Automatic annotation (TrEMBL):
InterPro entries: CTDL_fold, SUMF_sf. Residues 133-146 have a biased composition (Acidic residues). SUPFAM superfamilies: C-type lectin-like (SSF56436). It comes from Micromonospora carbonacea. Residues 129-148 are annotated as: Disordered. This is Formylglycine-generating enzyme, required for sulfatase activity, contains SUMF1/FGE domain.
Length: 277
């Protein structure tokens, strides 16, 4: 069996010794250095993580398999504070739709997907830091597809790529089907500064969806995940509209155009993925 077929359940069911052997084999096949394997917990869930190093960039193993993605408004039961925050936002910003319909429009639809196991960078990096190019070759402005193609080609030369939108969403939620990777509610205050819940490594050991400003590229030029570029925070939109941009399935559909039209390509984050052969 290829290690690309390693599922979450299979990885979790291995003995410690077998997990160490499997991780070592993955390191050999991906040209990385295994730096650790061990137990890890996040938001009341427990699992096992494996970390790897490639040229100073830390990667974590994200097992594959079949997963439920997207936000299902029929299953979601908001708590009293979220309902109150949404009511306040609706009044202040003239939101005319009910909460369930609003969330459905701001998130990806519920779906079942099958994904391969892969190594995913623990933290995102700016494109300029990962892909140094001559200024004349750097498409800071212009067509969205051209700029995205530049990113993809540069990563491909390194044997890397961004995650697909499905892969990003699964890597963030780590199998959680709640609105956020930690549950259906959010802490008091705004998602800015030191907030342990969003800045702690998730169940896969990834620091992801930790900053509304740092929406990340995916393989789809029209889809960035993990925030809204800071628009809600900068705009003073309040708790609900600021926190919702960190929902696992959140999609800001106009953000990609803003990034490319505004010359923000090089400083927008992406999260390298190293495929497992």
């Amino acid at each position: 069996m290829s290690h690309a077929d390693l599922t979450w359940s299979a990885w979790s069911g291995l003995s410690d010794e077998a997990a160490a052997r499997t991780a070592a084999a993955i390191a050999r096949s991906t040209g990385t250095r295994l730096t650790g394997v061990g137990p890890h917990a996040y938001a009341g869930r427990g699992g096992r993580v494996a970390f790897f190093d490639r040229d100073g960039v830390s990667f974590a193993l994200v097992p594959g398999g079949t997963a439920q993605l997207g936000h299902d408004p029929g299953r979601f039961v908001p708590d009293a504070r979220l309902r109150a925050d949404f009511a306040e936002a609706s009044t202040e910003w003239a939101l005319t739709e009910p909460l369930d319909r609003f969330l459905a429009e701001m998130t990806s639809p519920p779906r079942r997907v099958s994904l391969p196991a892969r190594l995913v960078a623990v933290r995102s990096v700016e494109a300029d830091a990962l892909l140094p190019t001559d200024d004349e070759d750097d498409p800071e402005d212009g067509d969205e597809d051209d700029g995205h193609a530049w990113l993809m080609a540069g990563l491909d030369r390194l044997g890397l790529r961004p995650p697909t939108p499905d892969e990003w969403e699964y890597a963030c939620g780590a199998g959680a089907t709640t609105l956020f990777r930690w549950g259906d509610g959010y802490p008091e205050g705004l998602p800015y500064g030191t907030v342990p819940l969003i800045q702690e490594p998730n169940l896969f050991g990834l620091v992801i969806g930790d900053d509304p400003y740092r929406a990340e590229f995916t393989t789809d030029p029209a889809v960035l995940c993990g925030g809204d570029g800071g628009a809600s925070l900068c705009g003073g939109y309040g708790s609900f509209l600021s926190w919702i941009v960190l929902a696992t399935a959140y999609r800001e559909r106009e953000l990609a155009g803003t990034v490319h039209d505004g010359g923000l390509l090089g400083e927008t984050p992406l999260r390298p993925v190293a495929p497992i052969p």
